[in-house]
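REQUEST
  id: r-88c1
  op: predict_structure
  target: Gnk2-homologous domain-containing protein
  payload:
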Amino acid sequence: MKNGGDVVGFEGKRDSAFQMVENGVKGNNGNLFYTGSYESLYVLGQCEGNMGNDDCGDCIASAEEQVKVQCGDSISAQVYLQGCYLSYSFYPNGVPGTISSSSSSPGTGRHQHTERTVALAVGGLAALGFLIVCLLFLKSALKKKSGKRGGY
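RESPONSE
  id: r-88c1
  status: 200
  body:
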């Protein structure tokens, strides 16, 4: 199967998934990135960092129109426009790595939030470790400097 025409309601499912991406990049607090799944479709939208959320959403909407015109009912597509990127893939047996493919994945937001929290924690610990090493180096340097003064 190379096109979604064999799947009942494919275009409607794809359009709903596209709407998720468009809403996701608009309401993602400046993240300009969204990924998710909807009824066996995996979708991803991303914009360049210099775009605002509304401009990103408009760019993604333009990419959606390009998909409809250029790709028809293809089961997979990637569209690169100046400023944004849109990709989707249809998985007849459900999107890999998701529990349910019947609706948008409810755990996607929590998963991204957990990844962000872990990244912040690891980054914070690395910064704290670097600060401690710097302080120990400074302490050592000051000891050496004060030790040389006492030797005269």
